[in-house]
Structures are given as structure tokens and as C-alpha cells.
Structure prediction request, 291 residues.
Amino acid sequence: MKRILIVDDEKDIRDNIKAILADQSYLSETAESSDQALYLIEQNQFDLIILDVWLNDSKLDGMQLLNEIKNKHSETPIIIISGHGNIEMAVQAIKDGAHEFIEKPFNSERLLLSVSRSIEMAEIKYENQKLKEKEIYNYKFIGISPQIQKIRQLIDKVAPSSSRVLIYGESGTGKDLVAREIHKQSKYSDGPFIVINAAILEPEGIESDLFGFENGKDEVTAGLFEKSHNGTLFIDEVGEMPLQTQAKILRVLTDQSFTRVGGDKSISIDSRIICSSTRDLNYLIEEGSFR
Prediction:
């Protein structure tokens, strides 16, 4: 059974949220201040935290508490709620590590959707991270042939730099292993290694997947570019991306910033881009299907 911590200075709101969650068999505990919340977090393992921005008579406000929790429990998903929120606050909350931002007043369906989605996404992220760590670090780049030695030399040459890399090769030749090896030896090695297979992304949703999206004032979702901040973004089969998306990626590569779908705020990132392709991109450029 999932355990949720509700942090709000208003007792009526704490009790209301607790009752909504109890109807769906969630176990909940409540806190009215940052000190109370931090004590409960140290004593318990929570699957989700619902945190109000404004905490009257509290040592830390909600945004400060968000940062404090993320510093020690980065894996715990947090939903920020506020009755005085705006898009700038929502964007900042997401950048600071919140999974979602909900404006008060909200109905029970909206809250429960955010709760289930945040818990599910945190579980998927945890499982994927474990798999990626296993894939990245539990392998050996083997081979002693002259061709492999040349590849090693190229990896050693480009890995320490921040330059973008394009890896050519037929399917099954290990392009992803080369990308991981570059990431492993780079200054971004402590950051995330995010993989996108452009060939299997749905065309109508690819820009939301890459850049994230904003839906009014109460929903902000980070995209893969944003999640790759301080790490590496590996775009597999980059030649399969739609032309319109290619143009936006070019702007990201040039400006190191982008806006979410439906948003107008510029988001800056520092990440390395590595791409791969089985197709001749020069030929695609000549035929007008690649920029």
C-alpha cells in the first residue's frame, strides 16, 4: 500500500486530501510545517509527497522545503499545490524537481490522476535508471582488431570534449555502446544518459516528448531535453525525425535553450548531444529530408 505525506498549513485541506486518498486505499500522514515534514520524512519511507507552496508559521516555505527534500531524497516524487500559483512558479517547481504543479482549488479526480501518475512515473524512472546503470557500467568494450582500436582512439579523443558526435553504423553494430562509452568518459558522466529512438516515436507527440509541454497553469511536464540536463542525450536513428522537429533541435543545439510545447518561457540546458544513424545523412540532405 502506497504511503503519502501531505504538507499544508491548513488543517481543512490536509484532512480533505487525506480523505480523498483514503477512499483509494492510500495511507497518508500529515504535517503542518517544514520541521514536522522533515521529521516524518526521516522516520518513514514515503512513495509521494503533496506539498503546499505557502506554509505559514513555518521555518521553510514550500519551495525551500522542496529543495531540502530533493537534496536528501531525490527519488521521492513531489506534487506542489498552491492557491496563488502562476506559470513562473510552476516552471520553477518543475526545474527544482517537482513532478507536477496543481492549482487550488482542485477536484478529487484531478488530484488522484496526478497522484497515480507521479507514483507510476517515479517507479518507472527508478527501474529505468537501474537498468541504464547496469547497461552503462556492467559491460566491457572488448576487441583487439585494428578497427576496434581505431574506434577506441576516436572515443578517447572526443569523450573529454563537449563536441556533438554522430555515430554511423549498421543495425546491431553497437552504436549505443559507443555512445555510452563516450558518456562514461566525459565530464557529463555523473549526469543522466537519456536515450531516444526517433524511429519509434509517434510523429504527433515527438515534440512534447522532446521539449515537454505546458497545459494552462496547472500542468507542466518536463521533456527529454530537460531531463538530460548535465548529462547526455543520445538520439538513435536521428534521420527518422520529422523536418519540423529537426529545425527546432537545430535551434536547441545553437542556443542551448528551448521552450516547452504550449509555453513561452526559455529553458536553458547544459547537455551533450550524441546521435546515431544507419542511413547516409548526406544523401538525406540532398533529397531534402534532413537538415
Q: What stands out?
A: The mean pLDDT is 86. Residues 75 and 123 are 9 Å apart (CA to CA).
